[in-house]
Amino acid sequence: MTKVDKKKLKKSKTATPVFPESVLKPVSNFLIARLHTLEKSKKKIIKEDPFMDVNRGSDNAASDIEADEQFGHARTSAISKELGKSIINIRKALARIKVGKYGICEECGQMIDTARLMAVPEAKFCASCAAKLEK
Ligand SMILES: [Zn+2]
């Protein structure tokens, strides 16, 4: 192999994005829109948390109200945790789009199935790695 060939190979390996701009653009728009929606829902859910209510009286509250509040807090914190996870995943996906690594499995480096990306645009692992990691 000549020097020139090596150079060419190296260049084509790093410079080729996985997906063309025409595919990445709508994906990134979709992710940005979803990110905004999720951030809004997260803010809303945090407000719904009864523990966030500053007018909440803790001394003379009836016990059934306390239980309600406990439940409400558990529910809202679970939801906001889930939303937070999705927000992070979407931010990461957007970062991968920027560096031209979108659609590449973080575990094995293979391309993620387009069908999978359609269903889960923020997926960072291919289907088989995701299945392995979930175990
Ligand atoms: Zn993989």
TrEMBL record:
Q: Which domain of life is it from?
A: Bacteria
Keywords of the record, alphabetical order, are: Metal-binding, Zinc, Zinc-finger
What sequence ranges are listed for the domain Zinc finger DksA/TraR C4-type?
Answer: 100-135
Q: Name one Pfam family in it.
A: zf-dskA_traR
What SUPFAM superfamilies does its record include?
A: Glucocorticoid receptor-like (DNA-binding domain)
Q: Please give the InterPro entries that the UniProt record associates with this protein.
A: Znf_DskA_TraR (IPR000962), Znf_DskA_TraR_CS (IPR020458)
UniProt zinc finger (dksA C4-type) residues: 105-129
What GO MF annotations does this protein's record show? zinc ion binding
What name goes with this protein?
Zinc finger DksA/TraR C4-type domain-containing protein
Species, as recorded = Candidatus Woesebacteria bacterium RIFOXYD1_FULL_41_28
Question: What taxonomic classification does the UniProt entry list for its organism?
Answer: Bacteria, Candidatus Woeseibacteriota
